[in-house]
Specification:
By secondary structure, the chain is α/β, with parallel strands linked by helices. It has 11 helices and 24 strands. The protein has a single domain (18-525), classed as 2-Layer Sandwich (Glucose Oxidase, domain 3), CATH 3.30.560. Helix 1 runs parallel beside helix 11 (506-525) and helix 3 (130-140) packs across helix 11. The chain is globular. The model is unreliable at 1-16 (pLDDT under 50). Belongs to the GMC oxidoreductase family.
């Protein structure tokens, strides 16, 4: 199909028909390719726009901030954001097998149980509850605490709990949080998130482990019923009645039509809705503006866009040289209620310890080793944005408007998060590291606080929600992740999340994919 594309298993040119086509080889897509191809009678085709991961820096945890902007980063850009001083934000997303698991900071945080209760409320289905998802998370994980009834043991993805390699600065940060009343935790994945702990990381033997490393092993890639096609994008879905008849796939040798019984979109919170809209499925007004005839009017496609922001940041000049991180710079995230270090329950804000001078593009970063940053953010933003296409072609840009900081609640909680960061940052437990605060400095009014926050915030790289699941008529997919308007189309990625989890969403995305794989197998056997 595409000259030079890496092929595993059957040759697509000889066998253009598949039982299942997975669109997108990122975190959800790689897991599904492995799980759905376990059934030897199912022919599975995985289509990925990028290539195989080859850059050695991908597997070096300390190199992760430098990966953004390289050839395998989609490097999307948002619309100028009124809530962030008119700034345009770069959104790094992986364009390669393994997707953003090759780019992100390797943090593994399931979320808070109440996050998933919101999913149950949206769908009416208990499978999306914390209790029901517990076995799903456990199947994914190989955790040092595995076998305790909470954490997984023997799963494909290693979960590393840092110990001796934790930076002495991060240790002081943890001590400061504990002195203020935050509980000490062993990771963030037990169901209790409020507290202080080193971050749990997808690292093994000092190297990043991507989803491709974990699930697309040599044995899996050798399956005769699995084909992996790289360097190819799906331009549109061709419809016939209430089904997808075929996919138009564009690769190095042009366009080809691919047929399948079932199609699973795993292209992410931006590209999954974009593909639907290019196919004439989406909000009528958006399609009209893009010059596309509307075949199925679904106003919610592309809406409900959510993302976490982090203030970068509360910056301190160091009293002594800060040794480079032996992990990945962002070593500890402390979750808490706003305005109360001793309250329990669902977290509202987060303060993170950066073993580096991390600032937004609005500020000049000091030299490495001379300063450190306390990052700050909110866990459940209420601002909702959108993504839409600007035209019918693959090269037409996406119009990404996350509507950052557009609600009063978000702005108020960000003020509290900055206050919490500064409270921790000025504690005596950090006195041995702190020479003086560099940012934000004196803030003499609420307007000055808001202005600093607007200029300091950066994306935490957690876009989701644009094809949300739910039982209400406007939801895009149902509780089984079946696309409501078509019988043989499913969406299985971050776009189906009704709302953000409290922390990084990668663990939740993997749980979404594993849940779908289990349901799919059950339907085949029934």
């Amino acid at each position: 199909m595409a000259d030079g594309a890496m092929m595993t298993g059957a040759n697509v040119e000889r066998k253009p028909n598949s039982d299942i086509v997975i669109v997108g080889g990122g975190s959800a897509g790689t897991l599904l390719a492995a799980r759905l191809s376990e059934e030897p009678d199912s022919r599975v085709l995985l289509i990925e726009a990028g290539e195989e991961a080859t850059d050695p820096d991908i597997w070096n945890p300390a190199a992760w901030p430098t990966l953004q902007g390289r050839s395998y980063d989609w490097d999307y850009r948002t619309e100028p954001q009124a809530g962030t001083a008119g700034r345009v934000h770069h959104w790094a997303r992986g364009r390669l097998i393994g997707g953003s698991s090759c780019l992100h900071a390797m943090g593994y945080i399931r979320g808070h149980p109440s996050d998933f209760q919101a999913w149950v409320d949206a769908t009416g289905d208990r499978r999306w509850s914390w209790d029901e998802l517990l076995s799903v998370f456990q199947a994914i994980e190989n955790h040092p605490l595995g076998g305790d009834g909470i954490h997984g043991k023997g799963g494909p993805l290693p979960i590393h709990l840092p110990a001796d390699e934790v930076s002495p600065l991060a240790r002081a940060f943890i001590e400061a949080g504990a002195a203020l009343g935050l509980p000490r935790l062993e990771g963030h994945n037990s169901g209790e998130m409020i507290g202080v702990t080193p971050n749990s990381l997808n690292i093994r033997d000092g190297r990043r482990v991507t989803t491709a490393d974990a699930w697309l092993t040599k044995t899996v890639r050798g399956r005769q019923n699995l084909t992996i096609l790289t360097g190819s994008r799906v331009r549109r879905l061709n419809l016939e009645g209430n089904q997808v008849r075929s996919l138009e796939v564009v690769g190095r040798q042009g366009s080809v039509e691919v047929f399948a019984d079932q199609i699973v979109l795993c292209a992410g919170a931006l590209e999954s809705p974009a593909l639907l809209m290019r196919s004439g499925i989406g909000p009528h007004d958006v399609l009209d503006a893009a010059g596309i005839g509307c075949l199925i009017d679904m106003p919610e496609i592309g809406r409900n866009l959510q993302d976490h922001l982090l203030g970068a940041g509360n910056l301190y000049a160091a009293r002594e040289p800060v040794p480079p991180s032996r992990l990945q710079h962002s070593e500890s995230m402390a979750y808490m209620r706003a305005g109360n270090f001793t309250a329990t329950g669902r977290p509202e804000i987060v303060v993170g310890c950066g073993i580096a001078p991390i600032v937004s593009e609005c500020f000049q970063a000091p030299a490495a080793g001379t300063a450190y940053t306390l990052l700050f953010g909110i866990t459940h933003p209420t601002s909702r944005g959108s993504v839409r296409i600007s035209g019918p072609e693959l090269g037409d840009r996406l119009i990404i408007d996350p509507a950052y900081l557009q609600t009063g609640r978000d702005r108020e909680l960000f003020r509290r998060a900055l206050e919490a960061a500064r409270t921790i940052g000025h504690r005596g437990e950090l006195a041995g590291w702190r020479e003086r605060e560099l940012l934000p400095g004196a803030l003499n009014s609420a307007a000055e606080v808001d202005d600093f926050i607007a200029r300091s915030v950066i994306t935490h790289h957690h876009p989701c929600g644009t094809c949300r699941m739910g039982k209400d008529p406007d939801a895009v997919v149902d509780a089984n992740l079946r696309f409501k308007a078509l019988d043989n189309l499913f969406v299985v990625d971050a776009s189906i999340m009704p709302n953000l989890t409290a922390g990084p969403i990668h663990a939740a995305v993997l749980a979404i994919a594993e849940t779908f794989a289990r349901w799919h197998r059950e339907t085949l056997q029934s």
